[in-house]
Amino acid sequence: MSVTDLIALSAREAAEQIRHGHVSSGELFEAYRTRALADAEAGEQGLNAYTWIAPEAPADAPAKEAPLGGVPLAVKDLFCTEGIPSQSGSKILEGYRPPYTAHVVEQLEAAGSTILGKTNQDEFAMGSSNENSAFGPARNPWDLARVPGGSSGGSAAAVAAGLAPWALGTDTGGSIRQPAALCGIVGLKPTYGSVSRYGMIAFASSLDQAGPFARDVTDAALLYKHMVGRDARDSTSLQHPDEIALPKGVDLKGIRLGVPEELTGEGVESGVREAFNATLALAEQLGATVETTHLPHAPHALSAYYLIAPAEASSNLARFDGVRYGLRVEADELLEMYLKTRAEGFGPEVKRRIMLGTYALSSGYYDAYYGRAQKVRTKIAEDFRAAFERFDFVVTPTAPTVAFRLGEKTADPLEMYLQDFCTVPMSLAGIPAISIPNGLSDGLPVGFQIAGPAFSENRLLDAAYVLEQALGFDGSAPRRNGGAA
Amino acid sequence: MSRELSAVLDHIEKIGELDLDDVPATSHVVDVVNALRPDEPRPSLRREQALANAPEVVDDGFGVPSPGAS
After folding, report:
1. In a domain, A369, yes or no
2. pLDDT tens, residue by residue, A208-260
3. In b/e form, how buried is each residue of A388-424, taking b as 16+ CB within 10 angstroms?
4. Are A375 and B20 within 8 A, CB to CB?
5. What is the distance between the alpha carbons of residues A243 and A67, in angstroms, rounded to a whole number?
């Protein structure tokens, strides 16, 4: 099979082909690896999607009967992978090669996947454009002058451009859903706790959750199916009550969709809103009922998020001190060594958030900031619970805009934070949400977000699948152009 | 950077407008209570694995510059 034909297969189709002996897993690995390398060599004409690419296909090919049949996987840099660089996009972890592998990666390898490479990201997952990376920005395969979104920008760009069949990302406030939307692919942020966080370099532990990037909903379901499970090494992980199934819906009869006014009005650009409204009309044609609803506290979600996440980050990032791993800037005296190491090792956005977080937690401000933010979090979860008494799902645009230009928002952090306006509320509530491609606006992808109650992934994937089939989005353009290829 | 942080704080301070007096704080969104395990010794990283990434190793431990005399 030619490289073009191999790349055209979805992950599930590729696994089938391997199982039937039409394709070998080594051949598939090599096809993707060659494209990833070509892109990396293209410099500014490429996507800068990878921070590390496997030097060769694994010597022991996975059994072709394995559920994931040897289909390779791109893994966000922040997942620890034994002996393979894992820096979470930061200079402070320069040279770090973890002595162990993240639970979810281990589980996917056991199911028959292999690591194709590690992907670019915003430093410690802090960002919405992938511009805060020690490896330089990743670029959007639909337009190289634009960002792929973030923080999991490398994973999204790699999948959209056919440099990987699928990929792992993490989502703290939108870091899977927003880049999936901006790159025209599918991204699922699962229910908090359904996937173990063991081996993920932590950003904000009460929010961080791993999830799949895929070209279609079926591939996302297949990957997620093998990610879930209780893990004793992450005491916040839980057994998913359902076996994750591949989606099979044919219509949306009886499905009630709630459209929260607070997340679909002001701030959403017109092209994105038009695409959103067109898909609501399509959902009605497919049998769904669509009604306006309210999440009264959603407008405050971003404020609560930018207190809670930096507060947790300021604690989590205290471990980077130049003693046990990564960068050390030498100095004669210990305190000076800490200061110099952190000054040089952390980028500006990470420093901003550490300062914001320590401020929010400081004595005298704790109650007014962190304490209040945790109460807002309670109200947001209550808003969703109330909505799910009347609706099966809440739907919004994933991001308020299409992919913006590199450098466009770097001067104004608040402007960048507003990218997560529609995705942060679900993160605070711990509920699952998926972004699916919702056509193009001015030639750039738009995302449609569907959120459901905790552990409703099977129903969520079914609904997303029905819409995906009806929308018939063609995401093949950036794969043909293949970044640089 | 102080100007940027001020702009972010101005936005964040909007939560001061809400009446939250009787609202309980959420620290964790999932229904898990006290995940416990038996207190039994288990294998962990070997010393050489734990030290493999250290910028400086001294006498089988992490090496650091002097804390300094003050």
Report:
1. yes
2. 999 999 999 999 999 999 999 999 999 999 999 999 999 999 999 999 999 99
3. beebbbbbbbbbbbbbbebebbbeebbebbbbbbbbb
4. yes
5. 14
Is position A203 within any domain? yes
Based on the domain organization, do A329 and A222 belong to the same domain? no
Query: How are beta strands A166-171 and A209-214 bridged, if at all?
Result: antiparallel
Domains in chain A: how many in total? 2
A448: alpha, beta or left? (left if phi > 0; alpha if psi -120 to 50): beta
User: Could you check whether the bond before residue A86 is cis, i.e. omega within 30 degrees of 0?
Assistant: no
- pTM value? 0.97
- Chain B residues whose CB is inside 8 A of the A412 CB are 4, 7
Contact A247, A217 (CB under 8 A): yes
A414 in a structural domain = no
Best B1, B9, B26 residue to mutate vs chain A (most A CBs within 10 Å): B26
Same-domain status, A22 and A115: yes
- Go through A158-186 and write b for each residue having 16 or more CB atoms within 10 A of its CB, e for each that does not: bbbbbbbbbbbbbbbbbbbbbbbbbbbbb
Count Cβ–Cβ pairs < 8 Å, chain A vs chain B: 140
Facing A337 at nearest CB: one of B8, B13, B64: B64
A103 HSE (CA, 13 A, CB side): 20
* A348 and A230 within one domain: no
> Does residue A221 share a domain with residue A356?
no
Interface of A with B in 5-64 (CB under 8 A): none
User: Which candidate from A334, A337, A381 shows the least CB-CB separation from B29?
Assistant: A381
Domain that holds residue A346: 299-373
* Residue after which a domain boundary falls, among A324, A357, A373: A373
User: ipTM score here?
Assistant: 0.93
pLDDT tens-digit map of A323-349: 999 999 999 999 999 999 999 999 999
Q: Where a domain ends, among A373, A390, A414?
A: A373
- Return the structure tokens found at B44: 């962990």
Question: Within a domain: residue A266?
Answer: no
